[in-house]
Amino acid sequence: MAARPGDQPAALLLACALALLLLALQPQPCRAQQQPPSPGYYPSATLRSLAFSEAYRTLWGPQHQTLSPDGKSLTLWMDRSSGSGFKSARAYRSGYFGASVRVQPGYTAGVNTAFYLSNSEEYPGHHDEVDMELLGTVPGEPYTLQTNVYVRGSGDGTIVGREMRFHLWFDPTADFHHYAIIWNPDQILFLVDDVPIRRYERKTEATFPDREMWAYGSIWDASDWATDGGRYRADYSHQPFVSRFADLKIGGCAADGAPGGCQPVPASPSGAAALSTQQEAAMRWAQRNSMVYYYCLDSSRDHALYPEC
């Protein structure tokens, strides 16, 4: 039965009230949980920012990078012809390696902006690698930060990756954020803005990298796997794809230094291998709220290949 004309205002008010009620019942994000708790220890603050030329050299794609006038920040870009990359001037046995990075918004599927340690040029086909990779995306979907560890050729031929991925608690396109790796003889710690997000412990010789490595940064086309397993690929109608690196920091034990003459960078305020209570709480928060994949929990993996799990 049609409503009488006099009923229309009341019906409209009722509809508005119901709409407001439904909106109020929707789960709302808790603002207090949008940021991780303080880790209480800020290793990045113990190291000074380096000029690019103090620690790094251009590795490839020199025509696709520009250095800031003060020499402390570097812009890399990728187009259909090439990406670009840089490499530390020295190899290291351990240390702190960090860079502040800002990536491009919009359609960036297939684009990999990486900051990592590797010895692939020294040990081709049998190398070690420790990765922090910002994987591009499509509009409306977040970037993915992938952390990974390859040991003695597990990244060559038949890939045996040890990935942990995150959708970060901030927009990495809106500002610079500091991504860092602390690699010590007993563990590898991945940090974002000094918040530990992953700890990879040395459990066996076979699952931990202990040969010298160099630090690298790059932007390159990883369309085959980077975005939704390769479903979305780099679309060069959106080129150039731009990533910016700044606040470069290295505090490491150089491979060409005197053995025993360098102490590992502390992973915790006490200097012990174990993280502090505050650091552990911050890492639990990051993994509970931001982690979207962990290889040890993937039932499709052959866990005989991952004794550390």
From TrEMBL:
Active site: E129, E133
A GO CC term assigned to this protein in UniProt: apoplast
Pfam families: Glyco_hydro_16 (PF00722), XET_C (PF06955)
Keyword Flavoprotein: no
Entry keyword Signal: yes
Main location: secreted
Any one of the GO BP annotations: cell wall organization
Entry EC no(s): 2.4.1.207
Signal peptide, first to last residue: 1-32
GO molecular function, one term: hydrolase activity, acting on glycosyl bonds
Protein family according to the UniProt entry: Belongs to the glycosyl hydrolase 16 family.
Role played: Catalyzes xyloglucan endohydrolysis (XEH) and/or endotransglycosylation (XET). Cleaves and religates xyloglucan polymers, an essential constituent of the primary cell wall, and thereby participates in cell wall construction of growing tissues.
Name listed for the protein in its UniProt record: Xyloglucan endotransglucosylase/hydrolase
Naturally occurring in which organism (per UniProt): Urochloa decumbens
